[in-house]
Request: fold
Amino acid sequence: MGRSVLVRRGGKSVPVTLTGGPLGVIPQKVYTGTRPREGRFRNTRGSPLPWSDRPVLDESCGRTSFEGMSAISLFSRPRRLALAAALGVAAVSLTACAGARPTPAAEPEFIHPDGPPVNPFSPAVRVGNLVFVSGTLGTTGTGLTLVPGGITPETRQVMENIKRTLAAAGLGMDRLVKCTAFLADLKEWPAMNEVYRSYFGNGKYPARAAVQATLLNGARVELECVAAAK
Reply:
């Protein structure tokens, strides 16, 4: 046997049919609100029975959920079973409601291995379990002076700079999961790879893309990466 109840959604009352017990214990109306309220049972028929026939429900996250109840006495086994059936509907809804609540966003952590940045970007930013490493050139110190010698020494310096940035976040090169390589000339891709591969063991290389681009200060290579925090 079914029973219609009113559920508040978007400021409107929507009828919903519940089943699972006699009419004496199926909810007759859904109470709404965003503040937690003390769960309670009400006797809507005015009779001095030692049990209640209207569980108070809440739909604060878009689904009907049972908020709780005060201690009540149920003298007969049929009434206890009927009430349990009615509350089963609410318990299932409560589980779905809890799963729908969003997880608070993680606060970003700005990583600066060399102190306050000279330029308006951070060498790396950690958000939750991910560390985003900015595009890194083969420079020494905090300036824009490239190591001399071209693609091979520049790639080595790029990798050392990324390694130092990750160390400031408490991570190693083995935690890199994605990199993008920017090359001034894709013909230098094999030479870059020779140095790049030496920083990873057991063939566990990050996912990667490579593109040709005009780079700052005449650089031959730039890498940006993403690492997975432990």
